[in-house]
Amino acid sequence: MEELPTDPRALVIEALCNKSCVKQDIYRRTQEVFALIKEVAAELAVDMADEVGRKDDRILVSFKEVSATACELGLAGDVVFLNMHTNVFRLDQSNSLWKTSYLQEDDMRGYFGVVNMYNFLSDSLRYHREQDLGYLVARLFINKDGHYFMQGKRQLGFLFGDLANNVIDREGLRKILYSVANYVIEFDLLVPPYDQVQVVSVSEIKTLSSRAQVSTGKRLGFRFQADVDDVQ
C-alpha cells in the first residue's frame, strides 16, 4: 500500500495532481458531451420540424445555439433550455449510488459535470417577460469515464439511472432529449388561482401589451413542490 505524504506542501501537490486533474478531465469531457448534445438537438429539431410542418405549419420546432454552454430546443409553445454548468460537483454522500460497487471501486467516479434542462414557455423568451418562471425538469450527470445518470421528473430519472452501465453516446442522448421533450409537452400550463392575479399595478398594465410583467409559469400559483416526489 502506497504511503501518503504527511508534509503539508506535499499534500497540496498530491491533491492538485490527483483530484484537480480529474476535475479538469471531467470538465473537458462535459464540454465534449455538451457539444454532442447541441448536435443531436439540432438534428432532432430538423427531423421533427419537417414531419410536424407537413401536418400543421403553425407548429414550430427549432434549435438555437445561445453560447458555448447553452442552447434551446423549441417545441411549439415550449422551450427546453439546456445549460452546461462550468463547475464539477461531488455527488452528495447520502445518494444511494455511493452504495454501488461502481463508486466503491473508485470514488473519483462520484465527481460529475452537470447539464441542466429547464422548461420555459416560448412566449416568455420571445416577449422578454423577465418575471416569468422556468422549471428544472432534468439534470444530466457525466463522470470522468463518460458514464452518466440523470435526475428528473417522473420517468426521466427512472429511465436513465443506471450509472454503472450508461455510457454517453449519440443514440443515448437522442433518447434523453426525446424523453425530456415528451415530458415538457405533457407538462401543461395551468390557470393560476384568481386571488393571485386579481391585482395589477399601473406600470404592469402599461407594459402588458409589449413586455408583460405579470409572472407566468406552468405551475404559477400552485406548489411546484407537489411534483418533488416524482424526482428520481
Give a quick set of tags describing it.
single chain; 7 helices; alpha+beta; 232 residues; 6 strands; globular; six-stranded antiparallel sheet
Structure description:
- This protein is an alpha+beta fold and 232 residues long.
- The protein has one domain.
- It has helices at 8-55, 101-105, 122-126, 155-159, 170-186, 194-197, 202-207; strands spanning 61-67, 70-75, 78-90, 111-121, 135-142, 148-152.
- Helix 1 crosses helix 5 (170-186).
- Mean pLDDT is 86; it is low at 220-229.
Number of structural units classed as domains? 1
Task: Give the helix/strand class.
Answer: alpha+beta
The total strand number stands at 6
Radius of gyration: 21 Å
Overall, the morphology is globular
Q: Helix and strand succession?
A: HEEEHEHEEHHHH
Helix content: 25-40%
Strand order of the largest sheet: 1-2-3-4-5-6
Are there runs of 5+ residues with pLDDT below 50, and where?
A: 220-229
Q: Supply the number of helical segments.
A: 7
Major beta sheet, specifics? Answer: 6 strands, antiparallel
Fraction of residues in β-strands: 15-25%
Q: How far apart are the termini?
A: 38 Å
